[in-house]
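Let us work through a complete example step by step.
Step 1: write down the sequence.
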Amino acid sequence: MQFTVGKGRVSLNVRDQASLMAIIEDRLRLGQGFALATMNVDHLEKLQFDKAFRAAYAAHDLVVADGNPVVWLARLAGHQFSLVPGSDLVKPLCALAARLDKPIAIIGGSQEGCEEAGRRLTAEHPGLRVALVAAPGFPFDPEGPEADVLIRRLAGSGVALCLLALGAPRQEIFAARASRHCHGMGFASVGAGIDFIVGRQKRAPRVMRAAKLEWLWRAALSPKRLGMRYVKGALILPAHAVRAIAQRSRQG
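Step 2: predict the structure and record it as tokens.
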């Protein structure tokens, strides 16, 4: 499934969580690197105007639907994709890394938060090894000198899987850069997943998630930060819907 964004296109290419975890398990077993992006409407909005973000997305070989509108747009185009929130992938990825004895790194916005996440995850997943924890300064430049240092640290760490919780587009741009230098390492952008683990952000109640209203919960908790983001996202949906229907017509 392809989405037109600005002067380029980005592809959604992994249909569900089971398929994703099977692919990642094979990659980790074989020592093959990957970069995983979790597409949502905020990404689609940013991708329209951010050339570096588009280039980073093009370098990601695994892209899942992290947002119900993305799932619905794919279905309008005649493709069956399931919702795979990046924040829901932290624990399954850690369980897999523990089972395969593959060390991980956690990189996020707070050193304290990342360290606490490491402690909680290792307690929950016996055998999990957290080989590196880092929290770049804010605002983090994924193409700057601090990123260069972090890439060198990762390359020498023995890490097989790096969880990135730096926010879009920083985490995706960093993943695209780092994957070129850290051969055999997997990078997964998990967004707020680390904050959910340590309780810095509250996940929407299950009933709201089932009703596809997690966006409303998050907007209510952080109206200044997320309100305009959701408005911008809503404004781009009609054009994407028209293009999705056109895709389906061409295929039919």
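Step 3: interpret the result. The radius of gyration is 18 Å.
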